[in-house]
Each structure stands twice: as structure tokens, then as C-alpha cells.
Write the C-alpha cells for this entry.
Amino acid sequence: MAEIYDLHCHSTASDGALSPTELVTRAHEQGVTSMALTDHDTTTGLAEARTAATAKGIRLIPGIELSVSWHDKCFHIVGLGINPDYPPLAQATQDLQTVRVERAEKIAHKLEKKRIPGALEAVKHAAGDGMITRTHFADFLLSQHHVSTQQEAFDRYLGQGKPAYVSTSWAEMSLAIKWITESGGVAVLAHPLRYKLTANWMKRLLTAFKEAGGQGIEVVTSRINADEIKLIAGYAASFGLAGSKGSDFHNPENQWVELGRLAPLPSAIKPVWELLEF
Ligand code: AMP
Ligand code: MN
Ligand code: MN
Ligand code: MN
């Protein structure tokens, strides 16, 4: 049977709509044979995902998507095959939870100044025990009819430079890569084209990423075209990085993104799963 990998997705432990059990069940229904749960800055969904994966006979790779700062910009590093109990990583996720709560308070305050009250209570309630993200704010703005799409919430309020944007100091990139690799995992640069970097800055980023111990790059993600895959595969080859694939699935309502529905990894690229121990 063909292996189908999806090494990037989210549950209710961060900004996904499905619980870890529902997510694993859906992945299984979609034919995924190996999946990584990679919630934003948290590993609290992994235990439930593990139980569900064992029940379904699907391979679960413990993962995380860490928010990091590099040159005052935010990047996402996916950790695959991590040990969530490795103390520095566990401490980091606790610290990041505090960072996210404090950021949420500031975002809510800025929304209040725009005559939009009640955001903090709403996002805290929606996130429950999980990490509060801007997705929760977007959903709140949508539910209150301040915007008519999630995208509009980012374009008008939450995106960089918009009235409710709060610039945040995330983990330092090299430290985050260290936590991942020292816990036994592989660090992967998530969705490299989403940062809108010039070719020169991309090379600087990949040089720093590689020097810090980064080993992989997401070559195949959702809604990516053949030219983009070729471009990223070129970076993977030049920097000696393994290639990952992941949908970044959040919500079944997004008809463009489905678990496991991904183009093949170019054959010249070393698959990142060859670096993972099962
Ligand atoms: P945060 O990590 O709290 O800043 O939230 C970032 C999350 O917001 C991302 O992981 C996406 O799920 C979501 N997001 C960011 N930009 C957009 C956008 N333009 N439209 C919809 N969702 C977005
Ligand atoms: Mn997200
Ligand atoms: Mn991301
Ligand atoms: Mn993601």
C-alpha cells in the first residue's frame, strides 16, 4: 500500500477546528498513513492523538510548530519526532503560553479602542485549554459581523501594520531549533514562501537555519503550484535540506485544504521522514 504522509496540521490544542481524535480520524479516512500533529507552540494534543492513532492503526509523529523571531520577523519552524517531555522544550511551550496570553490581552485592548469590546473573553473561551491564536480573534470578528471572512479579519485588523496588530518577541530561531533537535526531533522550515522574502533574504534565512541545526524544509504544502515546488526544491538542494510535505490543515470548512491531499515530493529531494526514527 502506498504511504501517504501529512506532516503539518492543527487541532483544538491550538487553532484547529477538530479535536486530536477527530483530526486523526479524518486523516485516516483520507488515506493518510503517517501524520504529524503540529500545533502552534504546544504539544498538549499529542497524548490524545497518540491514543486515536493507535486505535486507527495510523502512524503518529509527535510534532510542534514553533513561532520564532529572526531579524524582527516571525517564522514558523515545524519540529518532527520531538520528545514533548524534554525539559527545555516543555519549559519553552509553557513560556510561549504566557507570551500568547499577554499578546491576546494587548490585541483585545487595541480592538476595544476600535470600539470592538469583548474579544478577550471570547478568545479565551474559544481556545479553552489550548493556545490562543489570531485565528481565534478572526473567528470572533467574524461571529460579531465586523468582517465577512477570516482573510478580511487579517487584512483589516490582525495582520502586520493593521490596528490590532501586536508585534511579539517569539523564541529565538536558533534556540527553537536546538530545543527540537536536542529533544530528538528534526527542525523543518514551514511554508517558506509565505514570508514573502526576497531571494537574498531567503538565502540568509536558510544559511542561519542550517547553521543552527535545521535539517528540513516544507517543499510541498497546500495550494502550491509546480513552479513554487520547483523553487523550494532548488533551495532544499542548494542548502542540503530534506523535504517535508504537510497540508497545514486547520478546518474542514476550508475546501481548498484537505489532510493528505498533496502533490508528490520531487524525486530528487530526500524525504524528511527518512531522517525520523519510527
Ligand atoms: P498567530 O500564531 O497567533 O499569530 O496566528 C497565526 C495563525 O493565523 C496562522 O497559523 C494561520 O492559521 C492564521 N492566519 C494567519 N494569516 C492568515 C490569513 N491571512 N488568513 C487566514 N488565517 C491566517
Ligand atoms: Mn494556524
Ligand atoms: Mn505556520
Ligand atoms: Mn501551521
Remarks:
- The pocket of manganese (II) ion (ligand 3) is lined by residues 65, 76, 190-191 (CB under 6 Å).
- The chain has a mean pLDDT of 97.
